[in-house]
Amino acid sequence: MSLSTTRPIGPILAAVRSVPVPPRHLLALDSPVYPFVTISRQPGAGSTGVGKSLVEAINANVDPDHQWTFWDRELVEKIAADHKLSARLVEGLEDKNHSWIGNFLSSLSFTDSSASKDEDTIYQKVKKNVRALAAAGRVVLVGRGGVFITHDIPGGIHVRLVAPLKNRVAFMAEKLGLSQRAAAIHIRELERNRRKFFKMHWPSKTLAPDTFALTINTAEVQVPSIVQMLLALAQQKIAQAAQ
């Protein structure tokens, strides 16, 4: 299957920001089940390339009413816009040092509440948006604990992307224009902060292989092959829901 370019998602994002996802019981038996994908990743394992390629491949073969969307930075922007928060703050919940977040929070005032918001309050907004998008289906969600937030929502395909450290360092160095040493330091910092993030919100859970439908080494499996595997899983989910 060729990975043709999907239509621009700007109009889709604008619409989603302005119109809330209609509420529905996530586990209602008579509700249609639409597949969705969560991508958990080691820093530098290439999640953005995989997620965008998957959305492009799906959208090349479905009608305009069933287009998929990709949510990584777009999710941050939506939550920040919906709740009048700093995009920098929302993005930093997973990857930034938590003492930095505390200092940042203490320096802010929010227009939608007289009480100051702590990190957990803000993350509850992230979780609410992630669950709403997953329940609506036809989305690829990157990071932010999506695998645990959506574990009880039917139709989920949960994927973990990994790669050897040397490959991830090379990827990060090229992506950010860093030296190999600086890229390695950056990856170690991201890994440390993500461990703290998961320990804070899901202390009893781990990112073990059996948490996911697939754990893929992106240094060994190329993006087109990963996309084909995920397409097959999506079709399987659709078939199961129709039974």
Descriptive notes:
- The chain has a single domain, classed as P-loop containing nucleotide triphosphate hydrolases (Rossmann fold), CATH 3.40.50.
- The chain is built from ten helices and five strands.
- The chain is globular and about 50 Å long.
- Helix content is 52%, strand content 10%.
- The two termini are 27 Å apart.
- The model is unreliable at 1-29 and 92-117 (pLDDT under 50).
- The protein has helices spanning 10-18, 47-59, 73-83, 87-95, 98-106, 119-136, 146-149, 165-176, 180-201, 223-242, and strands spanning 36-41, 69-71, 139-142, 156-162, 214-217.
- A five-stranded parallel beta sheet has the order 2-3-1-4-5, sandwiched between helices.
- With 243 residues, the chain is of the alpha/beta class.
The name of the CATH superfamily reads P-loop containing nucleotide triphosphate hydrolases
Approximate helicity band: 40-55%
How many H/I helices? 10
Q: Under the CATH scheme, which class?
A: Alpha Beta
Q: Could you say which structural class the secondary elements and strand pairing correspond to?
A: alpha/beta
CATH topology: Rossmann fold
The first-to-last residue Cα distance is 27 Å
